[in-house]
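> call design_seq(struct)
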C-alpha cells in the first residue's frame, strides 16, 4: 500500500481538515494529545495531498514521539506513530486461553497497523471460538451458519460474517502476488471477532454472575 493512501477510506474524522494531535498517545507515559511540535516536515504530491512527518515532545514526560499522518479526500486522518503505546495487554480470565491469545495478537497488530497479521489472527480466533461452541461445517462460513441454525448466533451475526471479506476461506491460504489486507478489512474482521466474543463468552458470564451461578466456558 502506498503511503499516499494514508487517510483514504479509514482513519478518524477531522474538523476543518486540521490535524488532530489528540489522536496521538505518548508511547512512554500514556498521555494523549499533550504535545508540542519539536519539528515539522511535510511532502506534497501533484494532487496537493500532504504527508506530514512531525516530531512531538510530550508535555507530561518530555519524551519524543514521531508521528506520520495525512488527511484523505473525505477528511479522515490516518496516523502512524513511533513508539506506540501498547494498550491491549490481556483478555478476561473467563475466556478460553487459546481464543484470548489469538484475540490479543489481533488487537496488538491493529495497534501496530500490521493489517495482514491482524486479519489472520482474528480469523483464527473466530474459528477457535465457534468450534468451542460446538460448530461443525466444511468451512468457516459453514461453521458460522451451523451456530446460527442452532440458535447460538443471532441471524445478524450470520449475515454480517458473509459481508466481512477476510472471513473467506481464500484469505486463510495465501497465494503468490495476492493483494495485501487493507486496514478497512482487517478492522472489520477484528470488530466481528469482538462482537462474537461478547455473545459467546461475555454475555453468558455476566448473566451467570448476576444469577450467582458459575459460568460455563464453551
Amino acid at each position: 500500500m502506498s503511503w499516499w493512501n494514508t487517510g483514504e477510506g479509514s482513519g478518524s474524522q477531522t474538523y476543518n481538515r486540521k490535524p488532530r494531535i489528540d489522536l496521538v498517545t505518548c508511547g512512554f507515559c500514556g498521555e494523549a494529545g499533550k504535545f508540542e511540535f519539536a519539528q515539522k516536515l511535510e511532502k506534497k504530491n501533484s494532487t496537493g495531498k500532504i504527508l506530514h512527518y512531525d516530531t512531538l515532545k510530550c508535555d507530561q514526560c518530555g519524551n519524543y514521539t514521531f508521528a506520520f499522518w495525512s488527511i484523505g479526500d473525505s477528511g479522515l486522518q490516518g496516523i502512524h506513530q513511533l513508539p506506540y503505546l501498547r494498550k491491549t495487554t490481556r483478555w478476561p480470565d473467563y475466556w478460553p486461553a487459546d481464543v484470548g491469545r489469538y484475540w490479543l495478537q489481533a488487537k496488538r497488530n491493529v495497534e501496530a497497523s500490521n493489517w495482514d497479521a491482524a486479519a489472520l489472527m482474528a480469523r483464527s480466533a473466530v474459528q477457535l471460538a465457534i468450534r468451542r461452541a460446538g460448530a461443525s461445517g466444511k468451512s468457516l462460513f459453514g461453521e458460522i451458519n451451523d451456530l446460527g441454525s442452532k440458535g447460538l448466533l443471532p441471524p445478524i451475526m450470520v449475515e454480517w460474517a458473509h459481508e466481512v471479506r477476510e472471513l473467506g476461506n481464500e484469505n486463510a491460504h495465501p497465494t503468490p502476488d495476492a493483494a495485501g489486507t487493507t486496514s478497512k478489512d482487517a478492522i472489520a474482521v477484528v470488530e466481528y471477532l469482538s462482537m462474537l466474543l461478547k455473545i459467546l463468552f461475555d454475555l453468558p458470564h455476566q448473566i451467570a454472575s448476576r444469577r450467582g451461578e458459575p459460568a460455563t466456558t464453551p
